Amino acid sequence: MSRTWIRNPLAIFTANGLDAAGGLVVEDGRIVELLGAGQQPAQPCASQFDASRHVVLPGLVNTHHHFYQTLTRAWAPVVNQPLFPWLKTLYPVWARLTPEKLALATKVALAELLLSGCTTAADHHYLFPGGLEQAIDVQAGVVEELGMRAMLTRGSMSLGEKDGGLPPQQTVQEAETILADSERLIARYHQRGDGARVQIALAPCSPFSVTPEIMRASAEVAARHDVRLHTHLAETLDEEDFCLQRFGLRTVDYLDSVGWLGPRTWLAHGIHFNAEEIRRLGEAGTGICHCPSSNMRLASGICPTVELEAAGAPIGLGVDGSASNDASNMILEARQALYLQRLRYGAERITPELALGWATRGSARLLGRSDIGELAPGKQADLALFKLDELRFSGSHDPLSALLLCAADRADRVMVGGVWRVVDGAVEGLDLAALIARHREAASALIAG
Ligand SMILES: [Zn+2]
After folding, report:
1. pLDDT by residue (tens digit) across 272-325?
2. What is the CA(51)–ligand 1 centre distance, in A?
3. Global pTM?
4. How far is the CA of 20 from the centre of ligand 1 (A)?
5. Separation of 387 CA from ligand 1 center, angstroms?
6. N or C, which end of the chain has less CB nearby within 10 Å?
7. How many angstroms does the Cα of residue 270 sit away from the middle of ligand 1?
8. What pLDDT digit, counting tens, does each position of 118-156 carry?
9. How far, in Å, is the centroid of ligand 1 from the Cα of 15?
């Protein structure tokens, strides 16, 4: 039995108001005790970690991403495009994805997230071209290799161009193929209960790329197996127009019409809602993943986080795919959320603690998890520790605010389930230079076709 005392942090954010100024004690992968200033652990600890130069956070939780897109970052033809033309230009490139390229892309995205203090990541993967039928299996292998937690969502596209959808025909699948694979993946990978490493959710891509039938059927499968539902919604006004023209419904009415307006669902973006729709989303307890960088890059709009949260909708954060961010950095995303939301609600209302709360406890709620996202006895020992010794922090005073205001971008140490996965700013057991070399080559090959 090994107890470790993460001792006397420079600053600590528990995400729940509990005091842990004296640090916390970890045993068997969980937090067993929080200590006030000057307090000693109740029982002797076999080891201690001196955190007096570290700001300690709960491991950050990313609730929306497309790992495969790390292969198409900052690609010139789409640098200055909004969502629909951006997608139409990228779809044919993405259709060439292979298992090897997906494995590399997933590893790059996860390593980047881990180094930014993220311990749990959701991915929305909806591309299954010929040869890539095992996409989620590929991703699950990489998650295990890096020792992180993930919510892998079985995405889908079933409405191709010839039927009035946005994606090209070669990227869509038949409903029965999608549903059979969804069932297979839940049975194979979905872990339940505290400490789960891999979970599966069902994630038809967006109103303009799937049929209402696959939305309804996915909701039924998810209810039957008690797994979560995820999709993109109310990201742009183009999407709203599409829903009005095709279904005669606004986005939330559409969501309701296919049985998705409930607490099992979390949505990426959630920007273009009216007051009545916000009330309904809050009443339903539907979660919203705010993706500030992507929303700024594609000029999609600003998520009404404060109204949604006040109405009862949990708010979390997501970096979104690497073709629209183009970074996979969760601590920088919390900074973006702080600043973008200040533009909407003012500086007094949007605090660093609020943004960090979204990146941790709020995000965990979106994924239906109560065992991560905060520091308290009984929670998983998922921790992100940042040092403030770089040039950018010199002269800063409040350590917690400095993390976001001075733009911390890399954790010094990250623990997942009681095990250090990042030490001295490097991922344990990962040859980063070799990974970058192979990933760059794969990215060039994908574009070359
Ligand atoms: Zn997305």
Report:
1. 999 999 999 999 999 999 999 999 999 999 999 999 999 999 999 999 998 999
2. 36
3. 0.98
4. 36
5. 31
6. N
7. 11
8. 999 999 999 999 999 999 999 999 999 999 999 999 999
9. 26
Return the residue matching tokens 């995400």. 15
In the reported structure, the alpha carbon of residue 222 is separated from the centroid of ligand 1 by a whole-number distance in angstroms of 20
Give CA angle at 366 (183, 336), nearest 5°.
125
Structural tokens at position 325? 């961010």
How many percent of the chain have pLDDT more than 70?
100
Residue 309 neighbours by CB under 8 Å, 6+ apart:
315
Kind of pairing between the strands at 23-27 and 3-7: antiparallel
Cis upstream peptide for 326 (omega within 30°): yes
- Is the pLDDT confidence value at 248 over 60? yes
Q: Which residues contact 130 (CB under 8 A, 6 or more apart)?
A: none
